[in-house]
Amino acid sequence: MNANFHISLPCKNIVETINFYSNNLGLNIGRNKNNWVDINLFGNQITFVLAEKFHFDFPFYLLEKEQLPSFHFGIILNDQQWNSIYEKINQWSDTVIKKTFFENKNGEQSSFFIKDPNGYHIEFKTFTKGNEIFI
């Protein structure tokens, strides 16, 4: 079975959200109106809905002495896709931090996080061995 995920999140500004995901990340924009937009995140659907007020606390946690945002979403890509989007984002953002976790262990992965205009942290990750995603 091939399954895709869908998530709906509040956003502060539809135009800025579309610009970020389309122009900065190069993702396709789907159906949209003045108060919502669908984004194609590598075959998965993120819907952003305009909200007057919303607030998330962004507590962090430690993973191998690295401080990471507890609240985030992301996508797992193969190595070629991951490197391609990393290079693209690195051209316009100087705040991208790339890190490898669980080095030489089960589940070894490389990740980087960026923050969108709504304050969401997005993680892009790739696994050294694709069959170790859940190990």
Provide structural commentary.
By secondary structure, the protein is an alpha+beta fold. The chain is built from two helices and ten strands, in the order E-H-E-E-E-E-E-E-H-E-E-E. The chain has a four-stranded mixed beta sheet with strand order 1-4-3-2, covered by helices on one side. A four-stranded mixed beta sheet has the order 7-10-9-8, covered by helices on one side. Strands 5-6 form a two-stranded antiparallel sheet. A hairpin with a 2-residue loop joins strand 5 and strand 6. The longest helix has 14 residues. It is globular. The two termini are 21 Å apart.
What key phrases describe this protein's structure?
single chain, alpha+beta
Query: Which percent bin holds the helix content?
Result: 10-25%
Tell me the total number of β-strands. Answer: 10
pLDDT averaged over residues: 88
Widest β-sheet, arrangement of strands: 1-4-3-2
Number of helices in the DSSP assignment: 2
| Proportion in β-strands | 35-45%
The biggest beta sheet is recorded as: 4 strands, mixed
Straight-line N-to-C gap: 21 Å
Which runs of at least 5 residues are low in confidence (pLDDT < 50)?
A: none
Oligomer: single chain
Shape, per Cα inertia axes: globular
Q: Radius of gyration, Cα only, in angstroms?
A: 15 Å
Q: What is the H/E order?
A: EHEEEEEEHEEE
What structural class do helix, strand and pairing data support?
alpha+beta
